[in-house]
């Protein structure tokens, strides 16, 4: 991250800190999350005991978040800081935490939760050299888009809340239980999409710009063929793009998945030259108007992919076996 931005943020932090402090109720637990998805989990489990702020708003590239003065103010006042981890926020979060002077949210303190702990990452690199990009050194950190990650994130959030506010443990556990029940019900629905994709005779292969949809596609059994970025975080060269286009043509890859911050010029060039469709998808809660919570985000992503791949509609819920017997 630009050190000038940090300096400006530190100066403004001094000016704004006092003003911002008066905005939240003093008796509420101040929870800061790096992504809106985790903010949703924290609000669902924390209820009226928490005041939750997300540092990103839903449409950013999380590998290089632009710092706002309010970002530092939020971290400085936090009782609990919840991040995704697996190096997703490594280019900006550690520096901000140091600048915030809030020891409560340092790594290793009860006020810091890293959801990547205990998550079995996919795409773990075998070549550990930093040459040519090193954004995913511990494997793919975009597991918030795994339909199977809901309970994992909910459990981490619960542990963090209980650690910093044990007096409210019972309330947190009750809400966590209700949320887990909703997640399990949703997972059942999402598995019907996986069955639908499994059953389809279509070639559901994709190329994507970055690797943020890998968990989602893995869940559906859709093979990711290549990335428009030669390595995570490295912009495409003409040579790499030509290789991707030729591979897409040879294998009739029908889809390029992208998001709002990707290089749209290279995405549309690859799609046009290979005769493929472009599907622009949100990567976070609030990334698009319909993704107002995490369950709706996953529901919407699966439905969008179903439509983009031209697969039939799911039968209404209750006809659980209809996908399998169709
Ligand atoms: Zn990434």
Kindly describe this structure.
β5, α7 and β6 form a beta-alpha-beta unit. The protein has 11 helices and 8 strands. It has 2 domains: 179 residues, Nitrogenase molybdenum iron protein domain (Rossmann fold, 3-Layer(aba) Sandwich); 138 residues, Rossmann fold (3-Layer(aba) Sandwich), CATH 3.40.50. The protein is globular and about 60 Å long. It is of the alpha/beta class and 326 residues long. 44% of the residues lie in helices and 10% in strands. The C terminus is likely disordered. The longest helix is centred in the middle third of the chain and has 31 residues. The strands form 2 sheets. Strands 2-1-3-4 form a 4-stranded parallel sheet, with helices on both faces. It starts with a helix and ends with a helix.
Number of strands: 8
Q: Give the name of the CATH superfamily of the largest domain.
A: Nitrogenase molybdenum iron protein domain
Write out the distinct hetero groups bound to the structure: zinc ion
Rounded Rg: 21 Å
Percentage of residues in DSSP E strands: 5-15%
Share of helix, binned:
40-55%
The neighbouring-strand order within the major sheet is: 2-1-3-4
CATH domain class of the largest domain: Alpha Beta
- What's the overall average pLDDT, rounded? 88
The appropriate CATH architecture of the largest domain is 3-Layer(aba) Sandwich
Which regions are unreliable across 5 or more consecutive residues at pLDDT < 50? 14-24, 320-326
Secondary-structure element order, N to C: HEHEHEHEHHEHEHEHEHH
Oligomer: single chain
CATH topology of the largest domain: Rossmann fold
Structural class: alpha/beta
Q: How far apart lie the N and C ends? A: 52 Å
Principal-axes shape call: globular
């Amino acid at each position: 991250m630009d050190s000038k931005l940090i300096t400006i943020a530190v100066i403004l932090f001094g000016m704004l800190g006092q003003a911002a402090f008066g905005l939240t109720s003093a008796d509420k637990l101040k929870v800061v999350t790096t992504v809106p998805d985790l903010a949703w989990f924290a609000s669902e489990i924390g209820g009226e005991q928490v005041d939750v702020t997300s540092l990103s708003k839903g449409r950013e590239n999380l590998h290089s978040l632009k710092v706002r003065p309010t970002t530092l103010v939020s971290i400085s006042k936090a009782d609990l800081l919840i991040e995704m981890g697996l190096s997703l926020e490594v280019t900006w979060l550690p520096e901000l935490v140091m600048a915030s002077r809030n020891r409560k949210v340092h790594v290793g303190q009860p006020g810091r939760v890293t959801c990547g702990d205990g998550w079995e990452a996919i795409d773990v690199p075998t070549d550990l050299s930093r040459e040519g990009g090193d954004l995913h050194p511990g494997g793919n950190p975009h597991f918030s888009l795994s339909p199977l990650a809901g309970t994992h994130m909910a459990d981490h959030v619960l542990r963090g809340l209980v650690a910093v506010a044990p007096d409210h443990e019972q309330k947190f556990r009750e809400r966590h239980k209700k949320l887990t029940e909703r997640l399990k019900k949703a997972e059942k629905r999402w598995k019907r999409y996986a069955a639908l994709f499994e059953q389809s005779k279509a070639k559901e292969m994709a190329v994507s710009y970055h690797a943020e949809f890998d968990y989602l596609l893995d869940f559906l059994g859709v093979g990711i063929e290549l990335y428009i970025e030669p390595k995570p975080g490295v912009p495409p060269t003409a040579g790499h793009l030509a290789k991707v286009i030729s591979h897409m043509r040879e294998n009739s890859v029908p889809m390029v998945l992208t998001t709002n911050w990707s290089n749209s010029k290279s995405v549309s060039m690859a799609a046009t030259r290979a005769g493929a469709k472009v599907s622009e998808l949100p990567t976070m809660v609030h990334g698009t108007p319909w993704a107002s919570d995490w369950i709706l985000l996953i529901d919407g992503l699966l439905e969008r992919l179903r439509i983009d791949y031209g697969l039939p509609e799911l039968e209404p819920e209750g006809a659980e076996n209809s996908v399998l017997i169709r």
